[in-house]
Design goal:
Layout: E1 2-5, H1 10-22, E2 27-30, H2 41-46, E3 54-57, E4 60-63, H3 65-75, H4 86-119, H5 127-147, H6 161-167, H7 184-194, H8 197-201
Helix pairs in contact: 1-3, 1-6, 4-5, 4-6
């Protein structure tokens, strides 16, 4: 299997971390987003959304980070990253859907305004947009902090794909100026994630 990725993509990082933790037999393929390799005809044939990650398993091509993570988990030896029981898997999927629909858009908005906008030569951050995304961030950070108040990881006392999915966007906490102060349980959980070899080995910084 080949896993197309770039270290600056938090979505790709999720899949790469999952592959490492699952000991999945994947060949990493670097896609230079900064040089626009995601826009080449060859890459667009794999993913017309011109985004990483992309998994290629023989003739099977799969996009979307969370789908790739689940596919890798289902093809690997039994792992606590993706529970064997129906309700356990449902909880993992619940939080993967949650971060895609709620927390990640807020993080992406702040990362664009406070970090990428200037890098792209599009001017300074728009205070109104920053305030808007911060409101959403606080709304969902409170939910996550509450979830982590009584457990070490998002779905319980064991690391799962849900933790990887939620932690990866937070890799830009400093650059995006995410307002994480006041969320003690989230910060303690992130410290546990950041101590993982898979996190350290996939850091782009």
């Amino acid at each position: 299997m080949k896993l197309y990725h770039h270290p600056f993509s938090s979505n790709a990082r999720k899949a790469v971390m999952a592959a490492k933790l699952l000991n999945a037999a994947v060949e990493p393929v670097f896609v230079d987003l900064l040089k626009g390799e995601q826009m080449t005809p060859e890459f667009l044939a794999l993913n017309p959304n011109h985004a990483v990650p992309v998994l290629v398993d023989g003739d099977f091509v799969l996009t979307e980070s969370h789908a790739i993570m689940v596919y890798l988990a289902e093809g690997a030896a039994p792992s606590t990253l993706y529970p064997s029981d129906r309700q356990g898997r449902a909880q993992v999927l619940r939080w993967m859907f949650w971060v895609s629909n709620h927390l990640s858009p807020a993080v992406a908005g702040l990362n664009f305004e406070n970090n990428l906008k200037k890098l792209y030569g599009q001017g300074e951050a728009d205070p109104a947009q920053v305030a808007r995304h911060e409101r959403f961030f606080h709304q969902y950070a409170k939910v996550l902090d509450g979830q982590l108040a009584t457990r070490a990881y998002v779905t319980g006392d064991t690391l799962t794909l849900a933790d990887l999915a939620i932690a990866a966007p937070l890799m830009y906490a400093v650059a995006a100026k995410l307002p994480v102060e006041g969320y003690a349980h989230v910060k303690a959980w992130m410290a546990r994630i950041e101590a993982l070899p898979a996190w350290r080995e996939t850091s782009p910084f």
